[in-house]
Amino acid sequence: MPAVGDDTPMYCSQQINIPPELPDILKQFTKAAIRTQPTDVLQWSSAYFNALSSGETPPVKERLEMPVATQKTDTGLTPGILSVLNRQLGPKKMCTLTELEKKWRDMCLPKEKLYSLIQLGSFGEDIEWLKFFGLACSALGGNITTAMKTVCEILTRDAEGGAARIPFERFKELYTYLAQIDGEISEEQTESVYTYLQYHVDKQEGMVQPRNFLSQDCPKLGP
């Protein structure tokens, strides 16, 4: 009870108006934060609610991730984060550096890693998302084979744990690009990979899956 002479207003539960949608908003926000595990909760929360208010894809992982054992260095980049960025920027095909910087910052990723990928790909103000995505996948794995496996797992429309199939033409586009960036993978080597995979692709309705190029019979993807 307030003391005698205290001007503090008195409230009861009947006087407090709680918006009916607030509990569900807070519940969904909490679940999203737990799944995404942002390193900067305030920065991420601002991006989350801004995305919701503008009808954009929020910076939320589809599921909680365990640490990536194959990652070269602790950059904060994970397949789950790349999947979020792909859902946000992939449909546009092209994005500006400013847009990419914002989405990168929203996921609380270090800007140094972003600029190293920008430099590696010699990107300018306008960025072809698929190529940047491929370089980001290569930053996660220790070799180009692991990078292409990550590409398939993120771009596939198969259910989680499924075959992780993607169109062969998309595979070729990204593998050719990463091989060129690598500089030690010859055109003859990439063609031998494509020739081998074509046999499986013809039986899989134009699709390729990690099991095909991870086979011991498949020519090496890397140098």
Estimated share of beta-strand residues: under 5%
Q: Are there runs of 5+ residues with pLDDT below 50, and where? A: 69-73
Radius of gyration: 23 Å
Placed side by side, the strands forming the largest sheet appear as: 1-2
Averaged pLDDT: 90
* Large-scale geometry: elongated
How would you explain this protein's 3D organization?
With about 220 residues, this protein is mainly alpha-helical. The protein has helices at about 20-35, 40-55, 80-90, 95-105, 110-120, 130-140, 145-155, 170-180, 185-205, 210-215, and strands spanning about 95, 125-130, 165, 205-210. Strands 1-2 form a two-stranded antiparallel sheet. A two-stranded antiparallel ribbon has the order 3-4. The radius of gyration is 23 Å and the shape is elongated.
Please write out the topology:
Elements lengths: L21 H15 L4 H14 L24 H11 L4 E3 H10 L4 H10 L5 E3 H12 L3 H12 L10 E2 H15 L4 H17 L3 E2 L1 H4 L10
Antiparallel strand pairs: 1-2, 3-4
Note the main attributes of this structure.
single chain; mainly alpha; 223 residues; two-stranded antiparallel ribbon; 4% strand
Describe what is shown at a glance:
The chain has 223 residues and is mainly alpha-helical.
